[in-house]
Amino acid sequence: MRVEFLYWDGCPSHPQALRELRAAMSELGIDPEAVAVREVDSDDAAGAERFTGSPTIRVDGADVQEPGDEPTGLTCRVYHLRDGRISPIPDPEDLRDALRLALTEQEHE
Question: For the chain, what are the domain ranges?
Answer without folding.
Answer: 3-108
